[in-house]
Structure formats: structure tokens, C-alpha cells
Design a protein that fits this description.
It is built from 13 helices and 14 strands. It binds S-adenosylmethionine (SAM). The site of S-adenosylmethionine has 17 residues, from α5, β9, β11 and α7.
């Protein structure tokens, strides 16, 4: 049966949603007043609060997602078509329906061959993913919003390493939660310091709340406001209610108590700020993937044989990484944590593949022995102060003997 009027088109749209044939709808040829808006892509999504129409407003430099209940969503499409958007296309498995308005507002509607025959499912469900992998790529709305997957659930070629890293990270966190005993708790809190675009933050939230069925609040801390706004908007669009992103620096973040502190590839001394925050907020677990070890590289003043070795720039750089992270591990031990240092992903995927982990214990701390190790290492490399040390012991510059400050 032909479709000739906008009312008939809207009625077909309504029907496609009821029969679950709706794949997506695009509104194009924008003639409204917002110079930056190009088009809107509308999909149906099954969220915790029910079926919604998810509108992705595609602007020149960003995308904004808003979800609407089905009826109001259809009303919005009806009001925009022919007034602000001169073209629409409804995608269903059997056919595409193309609507065009010309300059004199005359409507033409064409029924075309379907362009979406290979679509995996017309209405993605947030909560029906298989549990065989840590994080599934199919029907994963936030991974699509973050640009890791395409609409068919395929992993975007340039994001394959990132997807692998996400799953590896989830696997490691899961095992650390088990070994630290935190997994016994059904509710706990996590802070992700320097959360960036939130790839790992979203995945961790999803894994713990959706797949593992816990109630875990996750807060990302990020200094770049555009990323914070973007991540909060994606979190709202997928209804991750206990996931939020705060704008600010790691150093200035204030939380009284946090169960898990994470900092993945937070630059240079931002990792130390995160360790300090983790210790201060009495985290049971501190998980770090350090990068850019500039502070200690500048501090190292080797003497004797070590000086001959470290005159080669690359060796000094590698050594600075080892010394920085080795001392971090010792400061964690000094603060009552069991420290572990290991490679968390193969170096062929990223060279920033070292992980430093602190698991809080309640045994007596071997303070004197650890202090001696720190002192010896600092002396060996001619280091006056490690930045983390200055956070833990603000008077260290006045009185370099840590034993006096404890
Ligand atoms: C290399 S990205 C890593 C992002 C994310 N953790 C990941 O692994 O995908 C580091 C992020 O930390 C943020 N960052 C660096 N130093 C920070 C600080 N002191 N306070 C807050 N955010 C910081 C940067 O803006 C950047 O987005």
C-alpha cells in the first residue's frame, strides 16, 4: 500500500515500533535556526525505565543524545518534519521509506529497497547481553556513543586495541576485587581519577552493575570539561544512574571514603595525586597504570658506576620509570597496602602496560624496614624527594629523614 501524506508516514512509523520492525529514522536537510545542527538519528532503545526513542542530535563538532517516551518522541518527529527538516528516512527490515519536501513544501514519499537487511536486531536491549565475555560489543549503547562500536555491534577498526584493553582491564579488576575480598560486598564505591573519555569507567560500571548485579557507584574525575559534559550526557542517555563525572583536578578532589581508587594513564604526578587520594580516602584497593614519569627523571642525580650507565637518555628514561613506580609501591607498603607490580596487557598493544596495585591489609606495617629501603633507593639515585612523598609527608623538604616525620 502506498504512503502519500505525512500523517500516513507517521502512522507507518508508529506501526513499525509496535511490530518491532523499526530499525532507525533519520531527519535530514535541516532548515532551522541552529547553524551547527546537521541531522538527527533516532533509534529505539530498551532502557531500565522502558522503551524510549533515543534522538542523537548531530552537530558540526559534537553529538547530543536525548531520550523520549515513544508517543512524545513520535510527536516531535511529526512536528520537525516539513518544518525544520525537509527529509526523513524510516529504515525497516523490509523497506526504507523516504520522505522529501521540496521548496514549495510539496511532499514526495518513496518506498525503497531496505538498506538495513543485515541489522542484528531492531531494538537494542541494554540488559539482555550474553555473559560469555566481560563486555559485549553487540547492542552496547555506550560503546557506540563512545565510538568503540558501530551500530551493528562491530568494533571500529581503529578501536580494536581499546576494546581489548577494556576487556582485559575488567578481567583484572574482577580478579582484584575477588582477591581483596571487596567482591563479597554488594554495594561499594569507585573513583576513577583522570577518566578521560570514560571508556573504562563506563565498562566498569556496566560490568559491576549490569553484569555482576551489584550496586556500585562510580565517579570519574577529569580536568577537561568537554569530556566531563560528554560523559555525563552519555551516562544519562543509557540511564547509568550511579555513574557521574566531576569536573576538577585529582589533587583537589574531596571524598571522605572510597572503596576503590583507580587512575589509568593519568599523566606524570597525577598518578601520585591519585595514590594520595586513595590512601586518604581509605580505599581498600588502589589500581594504577602510570604513564609519563617526568618528575623522577629530573630528580635523578646518579653517581659512580650508575652515572656511566644513565648517561644514555633512553636508559635514564627507562630507569626513571622503574624507580618512580618502585618507590610508589614502597610508599603504598608504608601506608598499609600489599603492593603488586605487573604487566596488564601485552607490550605489542601499548608500551604503557605496567600496573601498580595496592591492596589494603590490617597487619602491622614494617615501617622501619620499608623506610630503610626507600632511603637506600633515594640515595642510590641521588633523589631528593619523590612527589608522592611530599604529599604523604608535607614536611619532607624541611626534614628529609622520613623516620622523623612518621
Ligand atoms: C591518557 S588519558 C587516560 C584516560 C582514561 N583513564 C583511560 O585510560 O582511557 C589521561 C586523562 O587524565 C586527565 N588528567 C590528567 N591529569 C589530571 C589531573 N591532575 N586531574 C584531573 N584529570 C587529569 C587528562 O585530561 C586525560 O583526560
Amino acid at each position: 500500500m502506498g504512503i502519500e501524506t505525512q500523517a500516513e508516514f507517521i502512522s507507518r512509523l508508529d506501526e513499525s515500533l509496535k511490530t518491532q520492525e523499526f530499525v532507525k529514522l533519520t531527519l535530514a536537510k535541516y532548515r532551522g535556526t541552529d547553524a551547527a545542527l546537521n541531522r538527527i538519528v533516532i533509534r529505539a532503545v530498551q532502557l531500565k525505565s522502558g522503551l524510549k526513542l533515543s534522538f542523537t542530535y548531530c552537530y558540526k563538532t559534537q553529538e547530543i543524545v536525548k531520550n523520549y517516551l515513544i508517543e512524545p518522541g513520535i510527536e516531535i518527529i511529526n512536528s520537525l518534519l516539513g518544518s525544520e527538516f525537509m527529509s526523513a528516512r524510516l529504515f525497516t527490515p523490509d523497506q526504507d521509506i523516504q520522505v522529501e519536501y521540496n521548496k514549495s513544501k510539496k511532499i514526495t514519499i518513496n518506498l525503497l529497497k531496505p538498506s538495513s537487511t543485515n541489522l542484528y536486531k531492531t531494538i537494542p536491549q541494554v540488559h539482555d547481553r550474553k555473559k560469555t565475555r566481560w563486555i559485549e560489543s553487540e547492542n552496547n549503547l555506550y560503546l557506540t556513543a563512545l565510538g568503540v562500536t558501530n551500530e551493528q555491534g562491530g568494533i571500529v577498526k581503529s578501536m580494536e586495541d581499546k576494546f581489548r584493553q577494556i576487556n582485559k582491564f575488567i578481567e583484572i579488576v574482577h580478579s582484584l576485587l575477588e582477591s581483596s575480598g571487596l567482591n563479597q560486598k554488594s554495594e561499594f564505591s569507585i573513583v576513577d581519577m583522570g577518566s578521560g573519555k570514560g571508556y573504562l569507567t563506563f565498562a566498569l560500571y556496566d560490568f559491576l552493575n549490569t553484569i555482576s548485579d551489584k550496586r556500585v557507584s562510580v565517579t570519574g574525575i577529569e580536568s577537561r570539561k568537554n569530556l566531563v559534559d560528554f560523559c555525563n550526557q552519555v551516562a544519562a542517555s543509557v540511564e547509568f544512574e550511579q555513574l557521574r563525572f566531576d569536573h576538577g583536578t585529582i589533587k583537589d578532589h574531596r571524598t571522605e571514603a572510597t572503596d576503590v581508587t583507580i587512575a589509568l594513564h593519568a599523566c606524570d604526578t597525577a598518578t601520585d595525586d591519585a595514590i594520595y587520594q586513595g590512601i586518604r580516602s581509605k580505599s581498600s584497593l588502589i589500581i594504577l597504570a602510570p604513564c609519563c614519569h617526568k618528575q623522577i627523571r629530573k630528580e635523578i642525580q646518579p653517581s659512580g658506576r650508575l652515572k656511566e650507565l644513565l648517561k644514555f637518555g633512553i636508559l635514564l628514561e627507562r630507569q626513571a620509570e622503574i624507580v618512580t613506580d618502585g618507590l610508589r609501591a614502597l610508599f603504598l607498603e608504608l601506608s598499609g597496602y600489599d603492593a603488586k607490580v605487573f604487566e596488564f596487557i601485552s607490550p605489542e598493544h601499548t608500551s604503557k602496560n605496567l600496573m601498580v596495585v595496592g591492596v589494603k591489609h590490617d597487619r602491622a606495617i614494617e615501617t622501619a624496614a620499608i623506610l630503610q629501603q626507600i632511603k637506600d633507593l633515594k640515595n642510590l639515585y641521588g633523589i631528593k624527594v619523590h612527589y608522592l612523598e611530599s604529599l604523604l609527608f608535607p614536611d619532607v623538604l624541611l626534614s628529609p629523614n622520613l623516620a622523623d616525620l612518621i
